[in-house]
Amino acid sequence: MSKAEDLVKELYPDWETSSVPAVDGLECSMVRIQRVAYIKGYNQAEKDLELGWGDMEKVFDLCYEVLRDVYLMKFPDDKEEQKEFYQEVLERFKDFKERKEK
Q: Residue 15's pLDDT is what?
């Protein structure tokens, strides 16, 4: 069972049996309609958030950019500085994705 199917069962349990008018001669429960809509939306969101090779290329470019601009081409040795490095790369990547979607 997929993660979406597991989550939808929690949100729309079987005990709810309200129904809607027949569709193509079939009586459909609201729960079933809600579940299908939830699963489709969840799966679409996963696709929308999936990283492709172009995204990974941009992440690599941003790593180089942050190393050049902030760390003077020396990768930080300290764990806290490494965390800051990756946070900066992530922030720039989020900005890139936001601009790209507009």
A: 43
Give the residue extent of every domain in the chain: 3-49, 53-101
Per the DSSP assignment, residues forming a β-bridge with 68 are none
pLDDT at 16: 47
Helix (H), strand (E), coil (C) string for the chain: CCHHHHHHHHHCCCCCCCEEEEECCEEEEHHHHHHHHHHHHHHHHHHHHCCCHHHHHHHHHHHHHHHHHCCCCCCCCCHHHHHHHHHHHHHHHHHHHHHHHC
Q: Which residues of the chain have pLDDT under 50?
A: 15-18
Nearest Cα neighbor of 62 from 30, 18, 94 is 94
Q: What is the pLDDT of residue 13?
A: 66
